[in-house]
Design goal:
1 helix, mainly beta, Immunoglobulin-like, four-stranded mixed beta sheet
Length: about 200
């Protein structure tokens, strides 16, 4: 039979074990040290929790963050009445996507590289540059090589063509007069037949 002293020691031992488990559970990590997302993605409190059964809230104002801008941000969270710190890293590893379009342009007109692309999609801002720039002083069809870059230097290369034609990029007429021009007024070569695609009768001078 267990005497009072032994029973008392057993009770003390159980209390100490329970207290140790409580302290361990209270102070063990409950959030991830770092969360990494792709630029443009959404982030929730569950992304930071180590245990899906836990509940928590953001202390930091997540809505104030630009989730499309790569960078590292300090995040405060409240879990089980305690404040934890974590890090949100926003990365951009996906290159831009776009569709190339072939152009027809008057001779001598400098065409921007961005005019050759549409349907551009990327989480961050992009730039479009020439790899192989056309010679805008020569008529005919030329191959154009382009590169799209986003803020993290992810790249997408595209090809297109430009047909440089021997026409004027603009024709001036006096305001207020009867519009009396024809397609030939735009020609730089009398031997090339031209016609209007635009209904110029609707133009108000």
């Amino acid at each position: 039979m267990i005497n009072k002293k032994t029973f008392f020691l057993i009770v003390i031992f159980i209390i100490l074990v329970a207290l140790e488990l409580f302290v361990f559970d209270s102070f063990k990590p409950k959030v991830k040290e770092q969360v990494t997302i792709e630029a443009g993605s959404e982030v929730t409190i569950n992304d930071f929790l180590l245990d899906s059964c836990l509940k928590g809230d953001f202390v930091s104002d997540i809505s104030a963050l630009d989730l499309k801008k790569p960078g590292t941000y300090n995040i405060e969270l409240k879990v089980s009445d305690r404040i934890f710190n974590s890090t949100l890293e926003i990365v951009d590893t996906i290159p831009p996507e776009a569709t190339a379009v072939n152009l027809v342009s008057p001779i001598y007109r400098e065409v921007e590289a961005s005019e050759f692309v549409y349907n551009v999609t990327d989480a961050t801002d992009i730039t479009v540059e020439y790899i192989k720039k056309p010679d805008f002083t020569k008529t005919g069809v030329q191959q154009v090589e382009l590169v799209l870059r986003d803020l993290c230097d992810n790249k997408k290369e595209l090809s297109a063509t430009i047909d440089i034609v021997n026409v004027r990029s603009s024709v001036q007429v006096e305001a207020g007069i009867v519009l009396n021009i024809n397609a030939a007024d735009f020609s730089l070569n009398d031997g090339v037949p031209l016609s209007f695609e635009t209904d110029i009768s609707t133009i108000d001078t």
